[in-house]
Design goal:
The protein is an all-beta fold and 477 residues long. It has 5 domains: 38 residues, no CATH class; 88 residues, Sandwich (Immunoglobulin-like); 95 residues, Immunoglobulins (Immunoglobulin-like), CATH 2.60.40.10; 83 residues, Immunoglobulins (Immunoglobulin-like), CATH 2.60.40; 88 residues, Immunoglobulin-like (Sandwich), CATH 2.60.40. The protein is built from no helices and 44 strands. The radius of gyration is 56 Å and the shape is elongated.
Length: 477
């Protein structure tokens, strides 16, 4: 300190200790004067801890983040997390600047900044908080049941959804740790996936993945069951395509179709006829011995087709197919004599719908003459089941019949066809005729058609009564 010639007091390199009450006294022979001066020395904020530190609390614990600050005037303290002001409604800050985090969660991890500010300046320090979180496994609370077929690939997922620090994962089977090396399985994704490339019945059991870190341990359970596909007659599903069994029956025959199935779980056997389930209502067919035998009694045409034995379990199915042929003579629907008429120049169809096994050969005849496919206006269609006559003419009148035959027998259906010809325009000649009063006159009107047309006469738009004695002729009635 030094006093200047003008009476000023100069203090160099002020310190906090220089703060206080100063008095200036001026006096002479005439008297004296005193003046009071208060000096406040301000100090910028200073935080009494390193610029960057770290805290590693456990999940759910209470954390105190200290920020001891000095400064004149006393600094104001503000906390930020990852650059965003801390919500004072969710956290507590003591007067000494300590930030309290109660029951920390994984979301509380981050970089916290303590900022101290007064009139002189400001200062910050940083605290990196890393909350240790016990490993969390997806669906850890539920046991996963894995049901697979023999030789299938199996993946067991032990997905870690949260863990700080990263978890170590170890796999166990039936309580014993799995060897790290085995030709039938491997692990991937940091042991989060256990993979069996070709599962075997020896791999059945309870598997457990245990994930642990410094905060604790979590596990997940898997129950693995290996099942075997249904097998019929001991033929493995991998043996390739098995050809259907062809069986030919004669009408009224009886036969048993066997189907012995095995598997794990035990398969259920059902029978189908041409895709439709066989039931107790299926005529002439019965299923017995828990589906292992299907019996056909008194075989008929309705039994011809494909019978399929389907063995089903929860993991798959197997089939055994029988193709049944029943030799039956041809049967023509509605085989009664059919009388048909058609207008001249129009089209007519003669139908001979036939059911036969083996398929029948159908021939057509007109008046005992065989009809060929190339005959004039006659066309055979639908495997000869339909005879089509286009542009029917009188020459097509006659007696037709179809004969359906196979190696078992034959059947016949007859038709009488009559072609009707519309009446032709009447021929009148002359159109004007004169006659003397009291004389007689004949007016001609001839018309052709089949059947022969009926002729009637009109005068001035009115039909002529047949009771009139003045008129006579075939057209009066």
């Amino acid at each position: 300190m030094r006093v200047m010639s003008d009476g000023s007091l100069v203090i160099n390199s002020t310190r906090v200790g220089d703060s206080g009450q100063y008095a200036c006294l001026a006096n002479n022979v005439a008297g004296f004067l005193t003046r009071q001066v208060t000096l406040k020395v301000q100090e910028p904020p200073h935080i009494l801890r390193p610029q960057l530190t770290s805290e590693i609390p456990n999940f759910g614990s209470r954390v105190l983040l200290n920020c001891p600050v000095t400064g004149i005037p006393p600094p104001e303290i503000m906390w930020l997390k990852d650059g965003v002001p801390v919500n004072t409604y969710e956290t507590l800050v003591f007067d000494n600047g300590t930030l309290i985090l109660n029951s920390v969660q994984g979301s509380d991890s981050g970089r916290y900044e303590c900022v101290a500010v007064n009139e002189v300046g400001n200062v910050s320090i940083y605290i990196d908080v890393t909350v240790h979180v016990k490993p969390q496994i997806q669906d850890a609370d539920s046991i996963t049941l894995i049901t697979v077929q023999l030789n299938d690939r199996v993946d067991m997922f032990c997905e870690i959804v949260n863990s700080v620090p990263p978890a170590d994962i170890i796999w166990y089977k039936n309580g014993e740790r799995l060897p790290s090396q085995d030709p039938n399985y491997f692990t991937q994704s940091a042991n989060q996936v256990l993979t069996f490339t070709s599962i075997q019945t020896s791999d059945v059991g309870t598997y457990e993945c245990r994930a642990n870190n410094k905060a604790g341990e979590t596990n997940k359970i898997f129950n693995v069951e290996v099942q075997v596909l249904p097998v019929i007659d001991g033929i493995s599903p991998g043996s390739g395509q098995v050809d259907p069994i062809q069986i030919t029956l004669t009408k009224e025959d009886t036969i048993d179709l066997p189907c012995h199935a095995s598997g794990n779980p035990e398969p259920t056997i059902r029978w189908f006829k041409d895709g439709q389930l066989v039931t107790h209502n299926t005529p002439g067919v019965s299923v017995r011995n828990r589906g292992t035998v299907l019996s056909i009694s008194r075989a008929s045409v309705i039994h011809a087709g494909q019978f399929t034995c389907l063995a089903t379990s929860g993991i798959g199915n197997a089939t055994k197919v029988f193709i049944i042929s029943v030799n039956v003579p041809p049967v023509i629907a509605d085989s009664e004599l059919q009388n048909l008429t058609v207008i001249q120049s129009r089209r007519v169809y003669l139908q001979c719908p036939t059911v036969a096994i083996p398929v029948a050969t159908i021939r057509w005849y007109k008046d005992n003459e065989l009809i060929h496919r190339s005959q004039h206006n006659v066309i055979l269609r639908d495997n000869n089941m339909t005879l089509e006559i286009r542009d029917a003419q009188l020459s097509n009148n006659g007696h037709y019949y179809c004969i359906a035959s196979n190696i078992i027998g034959e059947s016949r259906k007859s038709f009488n066809l009559e072609v009707h010809v519309p009446p032709q325009p009447p021929i009148t000649s002359p159109t004007t005729t004169s006659v003397d009063a009291s004389g007689s006159v004949t007016l001609n009107c001839e018309s052709n058609g089949y059947p022969p047309p009926t002729i009637r006469w009109m005068k001035n738009g009115m039909f002529i009564s047949p009771a009139s004695s003045r008129y006579q002729g075939n057209g009066l009635r």
